[in-house]
Amino acid sequence: MLMFVLGVVLLEVVLQWRVNHSAPDEAEWLAVSAAVRGEKKAGDLVVIAPEWATQGRVYLRDLIAPKDHGRFDTTRYGRVLLVSLNGASTSEVEGLERVKSETFGRLSLEVYNRSAPAIITYDFVENASTGYRQNGQRIVPGFVIDNAFKPRLVIPVPLRPDGVKVVFPDVPAGGDVLRGYGVVGNRSGQFDVGSAVTIAASVDGAPIGRVKVRNMGPLEPFEFELPKRTEAAEVVFEIHSTSGLKREFGFAADIREREK
Amino acid sequence: MEALNRKRRFDHLIGAAIAIAYLLVLLGTARDVGFSRDEGFYFTAAKRYQRWFDVLAENPSKALNEQVIERHWKYNREHPALMKTLFAFSHRTLHQKLEILSPATAYRFPGMVAAALGLYILFIFGSHAFGRAAGAFAALGFALMPRIFYHAHLACFDVAVTTAWLGVTYLYWRSLSSWKFGLAAGIAFAMALTVKLNIFFMPFVLGGHYAILMIYRLVMKKRGAKQRGTAQSDPSPKPWAFVFGGFIGPLVFFAHWPWLWHNTWDRLLFYVGFHSAHPFYNTAWFGENIIEAPTPLLLPTVMTAMTVPTIILVLFGIGVILRLRRRARPGTESNDEGRGGQGLDLLLLVSALFPIALISHPNVPIFGGTKHWMPAYPFIALFGGAAIARLISIVCERWPKLNRLAASVVIVALCLAPPFQQTIQSHPMGLATYVPFAGGAPGAATLGMTRQFWGYTTASVAPWLNENMDNGAVVSFHDTSLPSVRMFKTEEIVRKDIRIGGLRRAKAALLHHELHMVVEEAWIWNAYGTIVPSHVATHQGVPIVSVYERPGRKKKPPIE
Prior knowledge:
heterodimer; A: alpha+beta; 6-stranded antiparallel β-sheet; 15 strands; B: globular; disordered C terminus
């Protein structure tokens, strides 16, 4: 019994010492940030692992754009630059090829390649300033938090029983698929109960698809086939809900080439 | 007999020394610990109650008027009045009159005294039951639980009710053989009722223990068998604690709380009803936000395992096994040094398990970290003390030439090393602290556990605010309650010219990191158009509070 107790004491003290010395200092953060700044190219995604290490944004600053922070998935990014604290990783680099790794004390920078990133021809959130709601109101992208407490950058839409139209009058030609997500916002950990939210999309007045978004469960993308176009077109999203109208809601969508 | 009396007097001196030392440490470290939400409410309550006592002193008949009582005592009527009244008197005496403590520390002083008193009782209890080394380990082990150390600083009720539960239990145990202790238990129970609602469950716990004792005696008598342990010399357990407690308790409870002097029944019903239908508050549990029933059955047990130093829990387990094995071997002495008897082991075990079992019910709201089952912790520490006593005996039997006192000191010190290390490192972020076997704060954050609550960690970003905010800047203090922010300013922890405002007006916004608070962080991102915080306070590398600034703010140095 004595040896067991002393063993627990020793192990606990050693483990606590390790915890006490696990936090990177400012020099390490500055070093890894400089390395990311030197490495990053347009189209790269910078992520921090573990997710809770949000102090990394103090150092990485503009290297993590709001649209990247509020991403729905990583399919569009050709490379992922992972800033890792004490070897932590993220599911977002699973299946990707690690091509580079550099260590800065308790931090490391790992670079992952995606062999065939999605080719995005138009992003509705990035081009939100060109769109408007049916009453002429301008659209300003904003963050909502989904049911898994992840931040998502969306086009916010107030829910109305008679529906809300979000109009993009001049969407350039190109791309095969309109892909997107709808997300019901998570207000303070509680979900208002309400009906599913319907998103319907049309191109130059012709419907191309309709989907129902529910409160709970993992976010699933919707995809609508696009008609062949040679000219710019008007794309309209119509958002509709019969109840739970106080819920936050937003959607994000892009037009991309079909995966080969 | 004279030697025993000398020993006991010395025990009281040792217990008092431990208590006073702890009190001094709490006083010395108080300023580091920010003001929690609830403290803000209790500061306000104390002020209001103090004003009533001022009216009482000037014009007693006016003070008894129903409207006057309502005006002063309606605030925070969901908790009884003792601690808030003590906060008020302490503030009036130690700050306003004697000026020996700052306003906040003066409010907090009774809570700290309650914590220190708990250590004294724990030492006496442990010493009496299992020997002096056991008592020392129990007292110091409890004191050095990081979350206890944090809560012990506060003008709140949680450590006070833990002390109260412990005190009543000890006196009840002694009362089984003595009517004088029965009277003391009755008085203690009455006072405990005025601390917090938890005490209302004690009659069930102690009554159940008493019933089991009586049934056991009856059964043994019928069987004609010799009773086990020292029970052969145990007098029949007396119900003095219930007699005195049942009589004194309701009287004191009514008398201490002016709010109950009018519309008594309705107000009592409100008091009970408030807690029986208590709303759920957010609690993070492995990445899930718990905001409604059913709460996870294992949450209290797992949180205890993740936040109480592991060596204490290991010794608790060993202590329980040792004591149970002792009961299985007839005719043995109750322990190595102290005296047991009167169902002590059962009493300690039930007292250690009941608070955790109660709150484990899936319909009982769980929030506030581990504070609602803290009354279990002294008893966990006591079993740890029992294990320590056995360890010392093993060592001294193995190496007979060793000085027993020296061996005791070394073993107790070694076993207290991890709690000491963890408590030192936890301060002042007690609620963000998890044991190293759980990976500490980083491990808990990765697992998705509660990182904090109560908004007290504003203290950690106060220096940054003071250095970087313009004169008269408006700051959104997020989860720190308004009275607590005011106290930060009164204590000059936050600059007095910094103004309190909502997100729309604020030049800077705090964000206290909790799982569900990311919703409010998103509000900041949307309002300020940035996801980059200006400053982040961390604990073991885990963000605790972030400060966002509204872009485009021109910095001006504050006016000296």
